[in-house]
Amino acid sequence: MSRRIEYFRTREDECPLEDFPESLSPKDQQKIFWVLKLIEDLDRVPAEYLKKLHGTEEIWECRIRSGSNAYRVFSFFCSGNVMVLTNGYSKKSQKTDPRQIRRAESYRRDYLSRKKRR
Hints:
alpha+beta, YaeB-like fold
């Protein structure tokens, strides 16, 4: 079962994740896209790269390490194999930033409410 990755777009057709990779070095950008491709292609993705965040509204985190840098890209699943990427950030501490998780949950609710109306 392969996955299809989509990028979340707001009602105004903006993509919150669009600028994130562009703010990183080319090497780190390449690593992010490599991990996303891995998630698309593998049937069983190791928790090193993709993990469900417990206590959230079905939010998953893509976990990317590049040298000493750690990045997180949040997502959720829709229609079984469609993974919708919402937002990302550079992780600076051991704990995942709760504001980023709340943002991902808000984007998920918005996406699903608009999808219902179609």
